[in-house]
Design goal:
Layout (H helix, E strand, L loop, with lengths): L1 H24 L14 H26 L5 H25 L8 H4 L6 H25 L2 H27 L12 H28 L5 H8 L2 H22 L2 H11 L4 H20 L6 H23 L21 H24 L10
Helix pairs in contact: 1-13, 2-3, 2-6, 2-7, 2-12, 3-5, 3-7, 3-13, 5-6, 6-7, 7-9, 7-12, 8-12, 9-11, 10-11, 11-12
Length: 365
């Protein structure tokens, strides 16, 4: 484990150097351009926001449902939610050419902007997540249930507002749709559950924190309900956009089905939704390996979905420019910074596991 931690810290350190390089040279070191002004940093931001919202939803439900065997899950989910929110904020900083001007958003907020709504709600949500973790450690069950109840509408609000950043842009191809907020919520639940399960398996393997097989397998069964709903929402979106045959929407669909993003799209549908669902409903899904495989595939599938939502739209920014080719390819700096974020997530969780008791009445090996 010590060697793994050293490797992760080296990755984080190299990524930090890459960010300093980006600060010195500017966003010219990225593949972003006009009109592709959002890239892999924003994809990562949306992805981590989803994990945080899904993670706290898992924690809240475990508190409210009163299922005794799920109590150890709640604390891991709360830590995962807090770390994910922190990483989402860092991803936003990466996307800024002048991060020193970030305070302008708080000093001169434009209240009619969903971006402003999102920033304020995310900060409030972070405080709520920290409060839930603190109350869980203190064993203040009654007050914790109150915060758990509050966290459910907060979870819906956080991811709805994140979706509205995209969905309320009527001029952007493929984004202006009412179903985007519900789609973000269900995919957040899938990615949050997947991340919690992967984290539990990581903790068992590398940190010596014992989670019973029955807890992990029982939690994995929730994919049976979540994955079909996610597939249904995606189907509704594609059917509506395709049947209406609106040029700005159909051209984005072509990019997904047969164009530049076809590989990522079909990975999401096939390996990110269908295969994990088939695993969970089979006898293989009643094993730790099966649940771990389904969780990892769903985790990667939702990240692919975030790419499909954010990037293809920029390749066709306006109806009059449908025939003009646009391109975006993340540079080594972008890949390095995103990889550094994922490495940092593991480092932060390992550090948290050293100072926070991850189990309620559980034990270490």
């Amino acid at each position: 484990m010590k060697k793994t931690l050293i490797f992760l810290l080296i990755v984080v350190g190299v990524a930090f150097i890459g960010w300093l390089c980006q600060l010195q040279i500017g966003l010219a070191v990225t593949g972003m351009n006009k009109p592709v002004f959002w890239g892999i940093y924003i994809v990562t931001f949306v992805f981590f926001i989803g994990i945080s919202a899904g993670g706290i939803a898992v924690a809240a439900l475990s508190h409210l449902a009163g299922i005794e065997k799920f109590k150890p899950v709640s604390r891991v989910a709360e830590v995962v939610a807090i770390i994910s929110l922190i990483l989402a904020m860092i991803a936003i900083v990466f996307d800024l050419g002048r991060p020193d001007r970030l305070m302008h958003l708080f000093m001169y907020p434009q209240i009619n902007s969903p971006l402003v709504w999102d920033v304020f709600v995310i900060n409030i949500y972070l405080v709520l997540c920290v409060a839930m973790l603190f109350l869980s450690i203190q064993g203040r069950t009654k007050l914790l249930k109150v915060f758990a109840v509050i966290s459910i509408p907060a979870f819906v609000l956080v991811h709805s507002i994140t979706a509205w950043i995209f969905g309320l842009m009527k001029s952007q191809a493929g984004w202006h749709t009412a179903i985007l907020a519900p789609l973000f919520i269900i995919s957040a639940l899938v990615s949050g559950l997947a991340c919690v399960l992967v984290t539990m398996l990581f903790s068992r393997r590398f940190l010596g924190i014992h989670f019973d097989d029955d807890v992990i397998i029982s939690l994995g069964k929730y994919f049976k309900g979540l994955l079909p709903v996610l597939f249904y929402f995606l189907f509704c979106e594609f059917l509506t956009a395709g049947f209406a045959n609106i040029p700005t929407h159909t051209v984005v669909l072509r990019e997904l089905f047969t164009g530049k993003f076809a590989g990522i799209f079909w990975f999401d549908i096939g390996l990110g939704i269908i295969i994990p669902f088939l695993i969970i409903i089979s006898r293989f899904g009643e094993t730790i390996t099966g649940v771990g495989t389904a969780s990892l595939l769903s985790f990667l599938g939702v990240f692919a979905e975030r790419i499909d939502i954010v990037l293809p739209s920029f390749f066709h920014p306006a109806l009059m420019n449908l025939r003009i080719p646009y391109s975006y390819r993340p540079t080594g700096v972008e890949f390095l910074l995103v990889t550094g974020l994922f490495a940092l997530s593991a480092v932060l969780f390992i550090a948290a596991a050293k100072v926070i008791p991850m189990l309620e009445g559980g034990e270490r090996r």
